Amino acid sequence: MPGSFRIATIAGIDIHINLSWIIILLLLTVSLATGLFPRSFPGFTSSTYFLLGLVSALLLFVSVLLHELAHSFVARARGLPVKNITLFIFGGVSNIEREPRSAGADFQVAIVGPLASLLISGICYALWALLTRGADNPIAAILLYLAAANLLLGLFNLIPGYPLDGGRILRAIVWKFTGNINRATNIAAAIGQVVAISFIIWGIFLFFSGNSFGGIWIAFIGWFMLGASQAARTQSTFEDTFHNITVQEVMSHNVILIPANISLQRLIDEYILPQGLRSALITQGEQFAGLITLSDIRHIPREQWATTPVGFVMKPVSQLHVVAPGQNLRDVITLINDRDINQLPVVENGRLLGILSRDAVLRALEVRRRLGIKQETEQDQHQPTSS
C-alpha cells in the first residue's frame, strides 16, 4: 500500500503502518479524551483523559493487529503465502498473495478474524469485571472501552458484504454450494455494494442531522467498501474471462532484442531514439539477460555512454518478474495488479519468447467481452470443492 512503512516483523510477517493510520490515531485519541471518557468516567484531569485516549487508541490498533494476525496465521496454515499486514485508516488488511483453493479454507481464513475480535472483547470484559470490580479508574476505563470496541469490530466485520469478513464468509458458503468461486465473489461483492451505498446514505443523513464527524466517517467507510467491492467484481470478471487462457495466447511476440555487449551510445542511437523506446530487453547470446530503462541510462554520465556496455547498466533477470508461456493468465493478472507492473517478459528455458503487457491483457478482455466469449466450461466451474 503506497505511503506505508515497516515497523516490525512477527512470525515472519512484516507489519506495516500507513500514514493514514496516524490521522485516525490522532482523531480517535482526541475523540476519546474529549467525549467518551469524560462522560463515562468523570472526575479526572484533562491530561489524564488524553493519556487514556492515546493508550486506548493504541491498544485498539493492537487488537486490530491481532485480528489480522489471526487471518494470516490460518492462511499460512492452509498453504497461502502472506506478504504483510498493513494498519491504515480503516483498520488493517492482511496481504494474502493468492485466493484459497477451497471453500473450506476460504471460510476458515475469513471467520477467524471476527472470532479473534470477539474473544479479545470477552477477555477485556472479564478483566474489567474481575480486576477492577466496576471501579471508576483509568484501567477500568481502558478495559471497558476495549471490550466494547472489539465487540463492535467483530460484529461489524460479520456484516455479509464484501470486502468485510462477513462478505468473505458468505462467498465461501456460496462457493461451497455452487462450486464456482467467481459466481460466489460476484454475489458477495454485489451485496457489499448494497451495504456500502447504505452506509453512504446513512452517513449523509447523520451529517445533515448534526452529527458531522460521525456522518463523514460512516460515509467514508461506505465509499471505501464500494470501491473495494467494485474492484472485487472486476477481478472476478478477469478470472472468469481468462479461465484456462495461458500467457502465450495473449503475449506479444514482436519484441526487440538488444545484445548486452553493445555500448549505451549505440543503444540510444540505433534503437531508443529511432524507435521511441522507453525500455529495452537485453540478451546474452540466446539467453535473456535483463532490462534497461531510460532511468538506468540517465544514471551514467553522458561522456561514458560510448564506452559503457549495456550489460553493465541493465537490471539483471534475477531482479525482474518474469512469467512462463504456459502460465495461467488469471494468476499473472494478480501479479500485474499487486505489483503494479506494466509489462512482463515471457521466458522459457532462459530464452525470451515475448512480452505480456497490461494493455494486451485489457485488449484481450475487451475482445472477449464483445464476442461474448467465456473460457470456462460447466465441468471446470462446477466441480465440488473440498475443505
TrEMBL record:
InterPro entries: CBS_dom, CBS_dom_sf, Peptidase_M50, UCP006404_Pept_M50_CBS. It comes from Ktedonobacter racemifer DSM 44963. GO terms for cellular component: plasma membrane. PANTHER family: MEMBRANE-ASSOCIATED ZINC METALLOPROTEASE M50B (PTHR39188), STAGE IV SPORULATION PROTEIN FB (PTHR39188:SF3). This is Zinc metalloprotease. The chain crosses the membrane at residues 15-37, 49-70, 107-130, 142-164, 185-208, 214-232. Its main location: membrane. SMART domains: CBS (SM00116).
